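EI: anyone free to look at a 100-residue chain?
SC: sure, send it
EI:
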Amino acid sequence: MSDTHTDEVKKHVKIYVNVFLALMVLTVVTVAVSYLDLPIPVAIVLALIVATIKSSLVAGFFMHLIHEKKAVIATLIVTAVVFLILIFIPLFSETNKVTY
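SC: here you go
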């Protein structure tokens, strides 16, 4: 039983290390995107995509939500969709201004 427990711990440690490495790579991507000369809406969209991926990794693995019931996951997805809608409403209204 001890060998099984040790293997289980090693498996979890490997997952945590991989998630940490992915978060570090995505942080480098975030910094790299900030140095690119992109239009503001494109930069915002890229930053939100990277931030969404990073927050999903943190919530899924470090907060153990990846093993939760489907109702919790569905609630989180609905919350994320509503958040994105609320973020993009002002962004689209800013880009569609009429100038006289």
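EI: Residues 36 and 100 are 32 Å apart (CA to CA).
SC: 👍
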